C-alpha cells in the first residue's frame, strides 16, 4: 500500500515527511475501549502521553506515596521511574507500577485508536483522509525508541499495549523495542546517506540534547563510530511576544548551531579526513534544506532564511575554510532509516512528544 504521508521533492525526487504525519496534533475524540482511562477522551495525543505529562504525574503520585522528589530535576525523573520498577523498597515499586501502568494503558489506547480508525476520530483529524487511516491499519510493526521506550519502561509498556488490544479483540501491532536508542538517528543517517570509504561528521539535534559522532563507513558497513560528548539544546523557545524577539532568538540559536558543528568538526581525531558533507538529523520537518516554520524550537530559524541549509553551508564554509555541504533530515525519519529493512513498519520516538518516521521512505 502506498504511504500517503510521503511527499516527493521536485528537486531530486527524494521523499520526505510533512507535518501531516504528526501524532501530537491528533485528538482522541472517542475512546476505542472504555473502562480503562476514560478521562483522556477528548484530549490531544500529546497531552495524553509525553515526557512533560509523565513527569507531572510522577511528581503527583510520588507525593501520595510519601516519596520526596522535590530536589530532582524534571529531566531525571523518567530514569528514576525506570529504576523504581525493580527497587528493593516496596513503596517505590508500588509508586512506579501505578505510573507505568497508567501510561502503558494510555499508549495502548492511542495505538488502538490508530488501528481501529473509528469515524469520530477520523472526523477529528481533518487533514487525514481515509488513506491515512487505512495505512495505519495496514502497518505490521511499531518500533518504539527514545528514553521512554528503553529498559524496563519499554518492556512494561509493551505488555500493557498487548493487554489493551487483547481486551478490545483487535489484532495487535508487533511491538519492537530498541533499548540503545541514543544514537539511532546518527546511525540511521550514516547507513542511508554515507557512501562507502567515507568518514563524516553526523549530528542529531533534538529539542533536549545534541548527539555528535564521527562515523567511518567501509565496504557498506559502519567500520568505526566515535561519539563525542552530548550537548544541551539551547535557545529552544518557541513562543514569542513579537517578530523582533523571535528573530533575535533565531540568531542566537543559529550561532549556537554553527559553533557546535564547527567545534565538533575540529574535535575529530583527524579533521582533514572528514568529508565536506555534514549530516544532521533535526527535530523539524525538512526537505531541500528548508524547515517547517510552524512548530518547535527550530522553526524560528526560518526567519533567517527559508533555505536554512544554505545559510549553514555558507557560515560553516567560512568557519572551517572548506566547501561545506549540509544535509538536513527530519529526526524521526533519520531514526526510521536505521530500520529500513523492516517491512510495513513505523518508528515512534517517545520523548517530548511523539516523533513519527516511516521505514519505507527513500531519503
What is shown here, in short?
By secondary structure, the chain is of the alpha/beta class. It contains 11 helices and 13 strands.
What would you say this structure looks like, in words?
The protein has 363 residues and is α/β, with parallel strands linked by helices. It has 2 domains: 15-178, Nucleotidyltransferase, domain 5, CATH 3.30.420; 184-337, ATPase, nucleotide binding domain (Nucleotidyltransferase, domain 5), CATH 3.30.420.40. Helix content is 38%, strand content 20%. It contains 11 helices and 13 strands. The chain has a 5-stranded mixed beta sheet with strand order 7-6-5-8-11, with helices on both faces. It has a 4-stranded mixed beta sheet with strand order 4-3-12-13, with helices on both faces. A hairpin with a 3-residue loop joins β5 (198-205) and β6 (209-218). The longest helix is centred in the N-terminal third of the chain and has 27 residues, at 90-116. 40% of the residues are buried. The model has no long low-confidence stretch (mean pLDDT 94).
Which short descriptors sum up this protein?
single chain; Nucleotidyltransferase, domain 5; alpha/beta; 2 domains; 4-stranded mixed β-sheet
- Write the CATH architecture name of the largest domain: 2-Layer Sandwich
Helix content: 25-40%
Q: Using DSSP, what is the number of strands?
A: 13
Mean pLDDT: 94
Residue stretches low in confidence (pLDDT < 50, at least 5 long) are none
User: Quick one: CATH class of the largest domain?
Assistant: Alpha Beta
Largest sheet: 5 strands, mixed
Question: And the CATH topology of the largest domain?
Answer: Nucleotidyltransferase, domain 5
Strand fraction equals 15-25%
- Integer tally of domains: 2
Amino acid at each position: 500500500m502506498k504511504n500517503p504521508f510521503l511527499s516527493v521533492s521536485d528537486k531530486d525526487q527524494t521523499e520526505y515527511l510533512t507535518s501531516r504525519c504528526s501524532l501530537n496534533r491528533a485528538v482522541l475524540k472517542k475512546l476505542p475501549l472504555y473502562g480503562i482511562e476514560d478521562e483522556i477522551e477528548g484530549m490531544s495525543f500529546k497531552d495524553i502521553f509525553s515526557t512533560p505529562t509523565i513527569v507531572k504525574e510522577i511528581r503527583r503520585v510520588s507525593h501520595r506515596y510519601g516519596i520526596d522528589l522535590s530536589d530532582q530535576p524534571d529531566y531525571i525523573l523518567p530514569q528514576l521511574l525506570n529504576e523504581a520498577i525493580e527497587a528493593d523498597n516496596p513503596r517505590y515499586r508500588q509508586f512506579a507500577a501505578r505510573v507505568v501502568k497508567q501510561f502503558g494503558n494510555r499508549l495502548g489506547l492511542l495505538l488502538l485508536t490508530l488501528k481501529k480508525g473509528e469515524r469520530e476520530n477520523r472526523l477529528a483529524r481533518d487533514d487525514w483522509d481515509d488513506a491515512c487511516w487505512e495505512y495505519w491499519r495496514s502497518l505490521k510493526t511499531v518500533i518504539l525508541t527514545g528514553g521512554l521506550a528503553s529498559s524496563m519502561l519499554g518492556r512494561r509498556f509493551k505488555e500493557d499495549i498487548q493487554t489493551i488490544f487483547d481486551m478490545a479483540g483487535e489484532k495487535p501491532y508487533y511491538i519492537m523495542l530498541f533499548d540503545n536508542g541514543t544514537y539511532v538517528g546518527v546511525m540511521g543517517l550514516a547507513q542511508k546517506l554515507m557512501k562507502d570509504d567515507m568518514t563524516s561528521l553526523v549530528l542529531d539535534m533534538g529539542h533536549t540534547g545534541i548527539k555528535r559522532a564521527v562515523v567511518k563507513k567501509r565496504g557498506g558497513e559502519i567500520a568505526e563510530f566515535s561519539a563525542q560528548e552530548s550537548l544541551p539544546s539551547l535557545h529552544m523557545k518557541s513562543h514569542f511576544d513579537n517578530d523582533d524577539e523571535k528573530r533575535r532568538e533565531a540568531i542566537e540559536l543559529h550561532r549556537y548551531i554553527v559553533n557546535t558543528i564547527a567545534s565538533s568538526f575540529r574535535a575529530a581525531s583527524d579533521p582533514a579526513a572528514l568529508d565536506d558533507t555534514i549530516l544532521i538529523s533535526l527535530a523539524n520537518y525538512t526537505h531541500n534544506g528548508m524547515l517547517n516554520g510552524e512548530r518547535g524550537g527550530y522553526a524560528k530559524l526560518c526567519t533567517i532564511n527559508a533555505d536554512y541549509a544554505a545559510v549553514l553551508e555558507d557560515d560553516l564554509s567560512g568557519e572551517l575554510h572548506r566547501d561545506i555541504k549540509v544535509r538536513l533530515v527530519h529526526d524521526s525519519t533519520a531514526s526510521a532509516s536505521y530500520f529500513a529493512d523492516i517491512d510495513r513498519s513505523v518508528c515512534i520516538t517517545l520523548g517530548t512528544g511523539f516523533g513519527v518516521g516511516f521505514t519505507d521512505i527513500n531519503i
